[in-house]
Write a structure and sequence with these properties.
Number of helices of chain A: 4
Largest interface: A-B, 112 and 127 residues
CATH topology of the largest domain in chain A: Immunoglobulin-like
CATH class of the largest domain in chain A: Mainly Beta
Oligomer: heterodimer
Strand content of chain B: under 5%
CATH architecture of the largest domain in chain A: Sandwich
Largest sheet of chain B: none
CATH superfamily of the largest domain in chain A: Cupredoxins -  blue copper proteins
Strand order of the largest sheet of chain A: 3-2-1-5-8
Order of helices and strands of chain A: HHHEEEEEEEEEEH
CATH class of the domain at 31-403 in chain B: Mainly Alpha
Distance between the termini of chain B: 30 Å
Largest sheet of chain A: 5 strands, mixed
Order of helices and strands of chain B: HHHHHHHHHHHHHHHHH
Structural class of chain A: alpha+beta
Helix content of chain B: 55-70%
Structural class of chain B: mainly alpha
Shape of chain A: elongated
């Protein structure tokens, strides 16, 4: 630099010091602060426990991406910082005159393309696997969301949910069931999501008003519930018992922040016991529900689920 | 204008009479068709909204760290629709702030500064034109923007208050009065965005026409500085993206006020239609907010490394490809919205592919500083930090791009961290870099260095303190847009991180103070700046402050590309675009 025109140039040593401080600051921020916090609380940077089979698959991809991005982060930022220090302005040293290098451009276009496409292909294989049709032995639960809460409908003694139709959903008929159908009275209604461990659980997601989202961090599962539709492709299998919380994760109004429901994963025996107790409680309540029937000419049969949406 | 390269200067001084030039007093600033004055109008208006939108963020952070506790000072300034009598946020008010913070920062801060301020200021000066192609339309663009802002802010004071539906305003929460209770505020939101869109469109038409028809002799497309390329591509994106938002917002207003059911399933509408329309605009919008930033940073890195931009053409191609691909990735916001699962898979492929041009740009920025002679100034510091923050924001995006991982991190604080690294760590850092870099040309004075460095280190440190822990919060399962994380058992253990984020946010707010003082004080009292304080090569540095109306006394002729620094064999280390290279020197093709 022959023309010393920059009014704001500092000496290099000043910048070396600044960078040292910067690095120290970042290390403190990333390692020391969370470590101090960790002494007081439990799990602060790990993921919450994973309690579903598909969650394990997701965590595996997550780890691949985590280590891949961490490696890229360290290499890129490391090289960058080295350059920033090494190539700072020094008296008598002129910058190298270069407009670029086409070979390099080709290399750093091809390499990321391959990595990203591989990631996309692998991700979509897992995506398809997670969304394969629910197994035949799955327990089907109708999950109904509303401003601002959740309600679940379980199959009664027949082992099958009574027919329902989203067009019938109303404040009087929250699940859109055919109240003239005798099977409807067998359904078990619950404010909690109670599921048996080690058995596939197929949830039919509904909303009575606005869009809500079914989100349980420990399940690694998020899915929007759309009014006027049944989302029927979500199923999961719990790998251990425990108590968690179902959260709405789509802004749905003033009570959104507190729209939650307890989730209990229990043994099959405990589940059956809970269901039968629940059924007895329900029997009395269901008698008061006014009847509603499928509108004549509604055409489509009462289907419980839409496993693949239209484009 | 038939010629590709038209005479940029208005030869006839009489033609300036209608441009507001020479008007005295307040009218000079209210209706003025000089692109430089319009740029300043955009800048001052946007700085006002930075303060408003930023304060909202701090109020939200306070609530998240200490839910239900009255907010000091700010709590008494917020309207009664947002806070209770003690000055603590109510949950409806929190939702309003979520909505308005996002809307204001996107439509009234980032877009107008990146495009309105620098598009206006830089395009004519950098391509050697006398003004924009349509000066009156240009001023009209500012007024559309300005009025849309007043309408947006008015939403806080109508019955029901501001909309509480998020800046994404998902239907039918937004399109059905009974669900949100803020029908009037939401309608104003729609009208405001409609007008704001008209402002963006009139601006975009102007930029495109100016770049295509008014370049100085010798200024071929591939000799244009990268900020001009970036804003040119951005303007094309605006033309295709903005009308979709305007139409979609109009449909919400119809649903709310005229009994239509575009988004209401009971009347045969589809809630997801809104998401498709919104994100068809919304994803190009993300690139609208980052492309100009990339353009500024490319130039600033080159100037202060005293080196040509590494891979100039690769940069242009990368930006063009980002612009194109930007229109086929919108579905990655909707993997788990109830859209077809097959579509989700397709969108994840296009999303992974669009990461490639961003990677190319990052490598070229590193190539630019490689073997350079880096001069650390305040604008350079922000530009350097931009690249670093952009890398973090880019890498965190890969998690969401992977469909199965999105099942886990969708709508958590992980995404909040991600887009703040891109929008704040990248776009806003670039805005700071650009303001410091062109401050001498815009105000004729130098900024104060000490205040500039305090601003930089404060912003850099507190930005990371605020947003880095949000990755952890998201992975711990913290939902975005909830006003009280402590109601969830699994989030209680990470509450200390929320406190850390809030301390960072307050620090970030305080870091803005030296910036504002610096700008307003130096503009009046700073030392006079030389015409070309950074020894830069592009045309705007060839004219003295104050730049006359019409910009160039004599139309400049351009002889070579924009970034000829450290050319071997030359005594000075920069070769302005309007200077011929000495005969014995051959410039490398770029």
């Amino acid at each position: 630099m022959t023309h010393a025109m920059f009014p704001v140039i500092k000496t290099p040593s000043f910048f070396s010091r600044l960078f040292t401080r910067l690095v120290a600051g970042v290390v403190f921020l990333l390692l020391v602060v969370p470590a101090m916090a960790e002494q007081r609380v439990g799990n602060i940077y790990g993921l919450p426990p994973c309690v579903t089979v598909s969650g394990g698959q997701i965590d595996f991809i997550f780890k691949i991406i985590f280590w891949l991005t961490t490696a890229v982060f360290v290499i890129v930022q490391g090289t960058y910082i080295v350059y920033l220090i090494k190539y700072r302005a020094r008296p008598g040293v002129k910058a190298h005159y270069s407009h670029g290098n086409n070979t390099l451009e080709i290399v750093w276009t091809t390499l990321p393309t391959i990595i990203f496409l591989a990631l996309a292909i692998y991700s979509n294989r897992v995506w398809d696997d997670i969304h394969r049709p629910a197994p035949a032995n799955a327990l089907t639960i109708d999950v109904s969301s509303y401003q601002f809460g959740w309600q679940m409908r379980y199959p009664g003694i027949s082992g099958k949910l009574s027919p329902s139709d989203v067009r019938l959903i109303s404040p009087q008929n929250p699940f859109g069931t055919d109240t003239t159908d005798p099977r409807t009275a067998q359904d078990v209604i619950s404010p909690d999501l109670v599921i048996p461990v080690d058995r596939p659980v197929h949830v039919l997601l509904h909303s009575r008003d606005v869009i809500h989202a079914f989100y349980v961090p420990e399940f690694r599962l998020y899915q929007d519930c759309i009014p006027g539709r049944t989302i029927g492709w979500v199923w999961f299998q719990a790998t251990r018992t425990g108590e968690f919380q179902l959260a709405c994760n789509q802004l749905c109004g003033t009570g959104h922040f507190n729209m939650k429901a307890p989730v209990r994963i229990v043994s099959e025996a405990e589940f059956n016991k809970w269901l039968s107790v629940r059924q007895q409680k329900n029997a009395a309540a269901s008698a008061t529900t006014p009847p509603a029937s499928i509108p004549s000419g509604a055409g489509a049969p009462l289907t419980a689920s839409e496993t693949k949406p239209t484009l | 204008m038939s010629a590709t390269i038209a005479d940029p200067t208005h030869a006839d001084p009489e033609s300036h009479a209608g441009h507001g030039h020479g008007k005295k007093g307040i009218m000079h600033y209210l209706w003025n068709t000089d692109h430089k004055v319009i740029a300043m109008q955009f800048l001052f208006t946007s700085v006002f909204y930075v303060i408003i939108g930023g304060s909202m963020a701090v109020a939200m952070r306070w609530q998240l760290a200490w839910p239900g506790h009255p907010i000091p000072i700010l709590g008494h300034l917020l309207p009664s629709t947002v806070v209770n009598d003690d000055g603590a946020l109510i949950s409806a008010g929190y939702n309003m702030l979520v909505t308005m913070h996002g809307t204001i920062l996107v439509f009234f801060v980032a877009m107008p500064i990146l495009i309105g301020v620098f598009g206006n200021f830089l395009i004519p000066l950098k391509i050697g034109a006398g003004d924009m192609a349509f000066p009156a339309l240009n001023e009209l663009s500012y007024w559309f923007f300005s009025i849309s802002g007043v309408i947006m802010m008015a939403a806080f004071f109508v019955p029901g208050g501001a909309p509480g539906t998020g800046w994404t305003a998902y239907a039918p929460l937004s399109s059905h009065a009974a669900y949100s209770g803020t029908a009037m505020g939401q309608t104003l939101w729609c009208i405001s965005l409609f007008l704001n869109g008209l402002g963006s469109l009139t601006g975009a038409v102007n930029y495109i026409t100016t770049v295509i028809t008014m370049r100085a002799p010798g200024m071929t497309m591939f000799r244009m500085p990268l900020p001009v390329w970036a804003i040119f591509i951005t303007a094309i994106l605006l033309i295709f993206a903005i009308p979709v938002l305007s139409a979609a917002a109009a449909l919400i207003a119809f649903d709310l006020n005229f009994g239509t059911s575009f988004y209401e399933p009971a009347g045969g509408g589809q809630p997801i239609l809104w998401q498709h329309l919104f994100w068809f605009f919304g994803h190009p919008e993300v690139y609208i907010l980052i492309l100009p930033a990339m353009g500024f940073v490319s130039e600033i890195l080159s100037v202060f490394s005293r080196k040509p931009v590494f891979g100039y053409k690769a940069m242009v191609y990368a930006m063009s490809i980002i612009g194109l691909l930007g229109f086929i990735v919108w579905g990655h916001h909707m993997y788990v919205s109830g859209m077809s699962l097959t579509l989700s898979a397709l969108f994840s492929v296009s999303t992974m592919v669009i990461a490639v041009p961003s990677a190319i740009k990052t490598f070229n920025w590193m190539g630019t500083i490689w073997r350079g002679s880096i001069h650390y100034t305040v604008p350079m510091a922000f530009a350097v930090a931009f690249v670093s923050m952009f890398v973090i924001g880019g890498l965190s995006g890969i998690f969401m791009a992977s469909t199965p991982v999105d099942l886990f991190v969708h709508h958590t604080y992980f995404i909040v961290a991600h887009f703040h690294y891109v929008l704040f760590g990248s776009s806003v850092f670039s805005i700071f870099a650009a303001i410091y870099f062109w401050f001498p040309k815009m105000s004729g004075r130098m900024f104060n260095n000490t205040l500039g460095w305090i601003h930089f280190w404060g912003t850099f440190f507190f930005f990371n303190l605020t947003f880095f822990p949000m990755h952890n919060l998201g992975l711990a399962g913290m939902m975005r847009r909830i006003s009280d994380p402590t109601v969830y058992d699994c989030l209680k253990q990470v509450q200390p991180l929320n406190v850390v984020c809030t301390i960072g946010a307050m620090g970030l707010g305080f870091s803005m103070i030296p910036f504002l003082i610096n700008m307003f004080w130096s503009m009046k009292f700073g030392p006079k700046a030389p015409a070309n304080p950074w020894n830069s090569t592009t045309l705007e540095w060839t004219v003295d402050y104050p730049i006359q109306h019409g910009n160039f006394p004599v139309t400049p002729t351009v002889y070579h590309g924009p970034y000829e620094y450290s050319v071997p064999g030359m005594e000075k280390d920069f070769l302005p675009q309007n200077e011929k290279a000495p005969d014995h020197i051959t410039l490398e093709a770029h």
